[in-house]
Structure formats: structure tokens, C-alpha cells
Amino acid sequence: MTSTETTFTRVAAAARNNADWCASVCRSHGIPSTFGATAWHSAHRTPPYYPDAVTLDPDAVPTDFLPEIDMASPGCSIKDSFAALDLTSDGFVELFTAQWIHRPAGIPTTPTTSALRTERVTTAARLRDWQAAWHGGDGSPDVFRPALLDDPSVLVLALHDGEDLCGGAVLNHSSGMVGLSNLFAVDSGDLAAAWSSAITAAANHFPGLPLVGYEHGDDLAHALAGGFTALGPLRVWLMHRPS
Fold first, then answer.
1. Which pTM does this prediction carry?
2. What is the pLDDT of residues 28-67, one digit of tens each?
3. 109 and 86, same domain (yes or no)
4. How far is CA 138 from the centre of its chain?
5. Do residue 115 and residue 226 come from a single domain?
6. Count of domains in the chain?
7. Domain housing 120
8. Complete DSSP assignment for 68-130
């Protein structure tokens, strides 16, 4: 397999892993979703920050998923996993672009001076605290529900400095890899320590499996410093309704 083929395979697997995570979040809200040949999609409005469709193949076309989703109510979004679509004529605007990232299993974690204690979130009360910290305070949106904690493919991790909650991350296991998402540090804390601790936790919980995800901006820089490589772009589109 050529390096180009390897990269394509990894992007496709990362997209499927991410779609599986989106499906898990939807299930925790009682929202059904569907995996098609070229895209995952939900016929009902998905939870905040989660797309209504994720493309799984670079040959996906809008008619594969747009007729299957709710484009009428506010917030409709599409994750164009291969940055291959132009949805402007369908009423969407580009929300952001990012890079898929991949970290092979077995490479050492870059040590930091402030390693954090990692603890699995297992109760609804702890999940509420985690979600509030993830969002940055009170008034957090209803995204992460307790049913997620019963999903065998999902681990919600809290990062502690002593007894203080200082960060968190989510791991989801599917497609022979582990997705790392929703990584945060409280009050703009030590993101390098959060990345290092989450990577170490993933290796401990899922030994021998590569890590994938997507990032942009400062988080992408931290991921690359932590041993990830960039695989290629994805694009998120948001339905635009002129005022």
C-alpha cells in the first residue's frame, strides 16, 4: 500500500470512528441515526455541536444525505470528512476547517512536568460537573447525558491535579482505533499536560490501538507536539438562513 493509500485509509477510518461517536451522542438523547454507504445521518436535529450528517466516502454527494436530514430547523450542519463538497448552493456556509490527526500505537508520550491523574467519569453527578467544566461554567448546553456512561465504546475521562478537576477528554473505541475528542483544560490550564495525560490514558485503556481525531488552531499544534500527524482536511458546513 502506498503512503497515499495509507493516508486515505486512515482518513476514512477516522471519519467512521467520528461518525460512531456522533451516533453514540445521539443515542444518549434517544435520537436514532443511520449509516449509509457514503454517509452517516440523523433525520432529527442532533444535540448542540454535533452534525446532522458525516460523510464516510470522498465520493459522497449532497443527495446522499441532504434529503434524509432536518434542514428546516436552525442549526443544521454537515461534516464533510474529505473537504470534497461545496454546499453553498444548498444554503450552507463554511463554519470551519480542521485536520484529521493520527497517532500510531506504541510511540512514547512526551513527558510533562505536571502529569495529571486520570479518572473515568461513572456517575451522572460527576458528568454534570465535567460538562460544566468543559463548557467553561454554568449554563452549559445539554450535550453529554448519563446514558453515554453506559455505552461500552465510550470513556469520559476527568483529569485531576490533586482533587481539583482541571481538564477532561472523551475516548471512543471503534473501527480498530480510538477517537480522542472534547479535550479541554479548565481556565486555560496546562493543555500540554492535558494532551499528554489523555494520550497515556488511551494507551492504558486501549493498548495497541492508534489514536485519531481532528483539531485546528492551538489544539492542532498541541496534538502535533504530542506525537500526532496531520492526515488531511475536513470541513464543517452550517445551514445559513439570512435574517
1. 0.94
2. 999 999 999 999 999 999 999 999 999 999 999 999 999 9
3. no
4. 22
5. yes
6. 2
7. 103-230
8. GS--SSTT-EEEETTS----GGGTEEEEEEEEEEEE-TTPPPPP-SS--EEEE--SHHHHHHH
